[in-house]
Amino acid sequence: MSDVTFDADDVTLERVSEFVWEIPREGEMRVPARVLASEALLEEIKEDKTLEQIRNTTHLPGITKYAICMPDGHQGYGFPVGGVGAMDAEDGCISPGSVGYDINCGVRMMRTNLTYDDLNGRERELVDSLFANVPSGLGGGGIVESGVDTVDEILARGVDWALENGHAVEDDLLHCEDEGMREEADPDAVSQKAKDRGKNQIGSLGSGNHFLEVQRVTDVFDDEIGEAFGLEEDQIVVLIHCGSRGLGHQTCNDYLRKIERQHKGLLDRLPDKELAAAPAGSQLAREYYGAMNAAINFAWVNRQLIMHRTRRVFERVFDRSWEEMEMELLYDVAHNIAKKEVHDVDGEQRELYVHRKGATRAFPAGHPEVPRAYRTVGQPVIIPGSMGAGSYVLRGGERSMDLTFGSTAHGAGRLMSRTQAKNEYWGGDVQDELEGQQGIYVKAQSGATVAEEAPGVYKDVDEVVRVSDALGIGDKVARTFPVCNIKG
């Protein structure tokens, strides 16, 4: 391999600049594809179909500038996880496959004024209490089980519903993107089957890579931004990772099937049917956008209810009110989402459907869509690692708007399939090693889930964040490390 190219079987990438690699436009590609990675990460990315998938993405109608793969990229359903694609909102398309099945899968971080010493010796009590009180695992069971009328309200109003019903405080809304509500949500565009799947899952983690993790802040890299985010070393924080559960999955599935029937001509012109898209301006595009926004609201409420229940658990374990412990939302970020945004394309302001699948919005300081609390410093970005490695808090970088449509990575990114992970690891051994060697207490519904999420299954989150920071798309603010983790 030379300094200017990277060969990965049938794909050759050309180096644009440090950590920026490009698959040049050829054939039916509408734009080039870019991969943001170090050579060490490229060696891992090339092992699956990620590069082929990001190249396929460039065939989508109306895609602008380039398709982008983040440093944590890995193979997904049609569109790679870690992918960003911005399609013209007038003559482009919107693609359910490019958002993914778990609409608004995302993470939120809650601060506390507790220190690691406050928690030391209570880890087992806390992890047991969280596991007993926060629903997790496959299927039904949530903090709120309701009729479809309540689901409709949640789909329409998002976290405002939670506020009215005692599961949130006003400050929670002010520290969430869009204040926890997408106004373009259309509950009528969500099928009855999706609502039925969601009605008993409101306030539940689900399974797979979703988790609730109690962490301690080990490093603050930027004191000024750390102070603005309310973070300091040795502080206890809580990270919640989940999405829209069965409701989002069913919504994606419903619209993929509708697109297959109604827009077969467009589908036949794409290199991969899993990139299924509806033309911008079509009835189906409008319906999907309304349904997706409704599922986004549902996911925000889901994470909000889990967070508020976590406050109650801490109250019992530490015998003081959550307000005394200053258990406040730092921020909530979505990483499976499409959104109408205005971006500069070749010197022209254009409205685009920005698809982020396994990618996090990372708007810089001064951007009007950053919540007022953080507008002078930039949007908080939360990047979880594995349950045996650190996670990171970043802030939106100055170069993000130019390089990535205001986006950065969303996590460590998988190295191994779930099947492979279960062949390589035994859940009980992973739990024993984490507790014995690192003081990390893990509790899950099954050993198989722990095996699937073993630390060795993931890329090096430190390297992913190093690339983001060096590129100026997401700047390092703080690092955290697990203390307790519950999984479905």
Q: So, the CATH homologous superfamily?
A: tRNA-splicing ligase RtcB
Known CATH architecture: Alpha-Beta Complex
Q: Please give the radius of gyration in angstroms.
A: 21 Å
Estimate nothing, just give the exact number of structural domains: 1
End-to-end separation in angstroms reads 43 Å
Assembly type of the chains comes to: single chain
Main sheet, how many strands, which sense, barrel? Answer: 8 strands, mixed
Shape: globular
* Sequence stretches where pLDDT stays below 50 over 5 or more residues: none
* Overall pLDDT: 94
Task: Tell me the name of the CATH class.
Answer: Alpha Beta
- Which range best describes the helical content: under 10%, 10-25%, 25-40%, 40-55%, 55-70% or over 70%? 25-40%
Strand percentage, roughly? Answer: 25-35%
Structural class estimated from helices and strands: alpha+beta
Give the strand line-up of the largest sheet: 1-2-3-4-5-6-14-13
Number of helices: 17
CATH fold category name: tRNA-splicing ligase RtcB
Number of strands: 20
